[in-house]
Amino acid sequence: MPRHKEETGRVCAGMTIDSNTFCDRIWRGARLATMATPPIDDGVVACLDGRIVYAGDSALAPALDAAEIFQCDGRWITPGLIDCHTHLIHAGNRAGEFAQRLAGASYEETARAGGGIVSTMNATRAASEDALIACALARLDALIGEGVTTIEVKSGYGLSLDHETKMLRAARRMGVERNVTVRTSFLGAHALPPEFAGNADGYIDEVCNLMIPAIAAGGLADAVDGFCEIVGFSPAQIERVFAAAKAHGLPVKLHAEQLSNSNGAALAARFGALSADHLEHLDAAGVTAMKAAGTVAVLLPGAYYFTRETKTPPIAALRAAGIPMAVATDCNPGTSPLTSILLAMNMAATLFRMTVDECLAGVTCNAATALGLQNETGTIEVGKSCDLAIWDVDELAELVYRIGANPLHSRVRMGRE
Ligand code: DI6
Ligand code: FE
What is the distance in A from the centroid of ligand 2 to the CA of 201? Predict the structure, then answer.
């Protein structure tokens, strides 16, 4: 059977398809959570060249044919899940530090005592790019196994040009090794490396004048991130990092208000940040600033849980302001050794009182916006990448409700399993 596109030209994003369209793949008999429309009971999704060419009610669908047709038997389909905040690339682990914290030490104390981020920096510097990829792939596979099709990965454990670029190259390569979309963020302003002890401004000079220009020129980062915190960098230092990022055409995001309120979210908003992340200590002025800038609130309940934080992010205020909320794992060895996006959703609901719908939006459409990918993925809509997660559940709420279960039936990225 001749392919329609060969007869009449390409089927383009947003173009209406007609009854002769021959697709690559079709999923029929599904319940669809498109995240752009109300749920659809008897839905069909059609894919051509990795793009969605139809998604909607089967009763309204044109007659479609495809090389491969999947019967979904009433399974739910959501957009492929998006983990929009991870530190997946790192070497070693901090189980020993965890034990110290159980014995009473605080996160700040272990960081000041030379543990913390700097201990992971030492392990990461000692690891080759291949070794970094090998241990990160195990974490990535856990996320992929739960339907993740897009992941953000930060640097921030190299803290020198060579080691930060090694981390970013390793992150990009994971997207070649696996069928997953990887977005990278340069997090040079994560912690002060020992070479710059007592000279944080000197290190920020290096981040701004050496690292950001080189990383931007090499196309290694999709965004620039920072850690605005007493144990991290001051708002004035982060502002310099953001100015350098902007000068090199890179969007910004920020770890803000995690351990204390330093008005980081408002600073990020002033630079039109894609997202401000953590936000436990966010105040009303920060909410207002984020709303005005369209900055996504990325909530990281795994870090809240693991550090036994007691102050919850101001979910009600974020909700009332209509700020899009995303949920991510923050997978990192120090404060969130979490490789389950489904558990992150459950924690967002139980610990932060987010609704099922908010949790689902948090790992799909709002997570896409937090990465600047809202036109590419995060909803099941014509023209977007055909990124799907197909679930063996009767109700979508089961994705949030279960603890330790994995009802994923199959996963599709750019139309391919
Ligand atoms: N906030 C966090 O929770 C992680 N980084 C950050 O900026 C912690 C990273 C670590 O402890 O290794
Ligand atoms: Fe983080």
Answer: 22
* Distance from C-alpha of 231 to C-alpha of 242, rounded to nearest angstrom: 19
Tell me the whole-structure pTM to 2 decimals: 0.95
C-alpha to C-alpha distance for 136 and 154, rounded to whole angstroms: 12
Ligand 2 (single-atom ion) residues, CB below 5 Å = 330
The list of the chain residues with pLDDT below 50 reads 1-15
Displacement of CA 339 from its chain's centroid (Å): 12
Compute the mean pLDDT over every residue in the chain, rounded to the nearest whole number: 94
DSSP string, 125-190: HHS-HHHHHHHHHHHHHHHHTTTEEEEEEE--SS-SHHHHHHHHHHHHHHHHHSSSEEEEEEEEET
What per-residue confidence (pLDDT) applies to 16? 53
Distance 154 CA to ligand 2 centre (A): 8
**Ligand 1 atom 4 nearest Cα:** 335
**How many whole angstroms from 86 Cα to the centroid of ligand 2?**
6
Instruction: Output the pLDDT for position 19.
Output: 56
pLDDT at 112: 74
Distance spanning both ends of the chain, measured CA to CA: 24
Which of 86, 117, 230 to probe ligand 1 with, by most ligand atoms within 8 A of CB? 117
Residue nearest to atom 11 of ligand 1 (CA): 334
CA distance 233 to 279: 16
pLDDT of residue 203: 98
Taking a C-beta distance cutoff of 8 angstroms, is the pair 84, 298 a contact? yes
CA dist 275 to 32, 64, 136, 267, 287, Å? 28, 39, 24, 11, 12
84 HSE (CA, 13 A, CB side): 37
Which run of H or E residues covers position 42? strand 40-48
Distance, CA of 159 to CA of 87 (rounded, Å): 14
Q: Which residue has the tokens 């669809």?
A: 32
Q: How many CB atoms lie within 10 A of CB 402?
A: 15
306 lines ligand 1 (CB under 6 A): no
Residue that the structure tokens 């389950």 belong to: 340
Residue 351: the pLDDT is 98
Model pLDDT, residue 108: 79
Question: Are 403 and 343 contacting, i.e. CB atoms less than 8 angstroms apart?
Answer: yes
pLDDT in tens, 137-184: 999 999 999 999 999 999 999 999 999 999 999 999 999 999 999 999
Q: Tokens representing 182?
A: 């990887």
Beta bridge partners, 78, equal: 389
- Per the CB < 8 A criterion, the answer to whether 318 and 365 are in contact is no
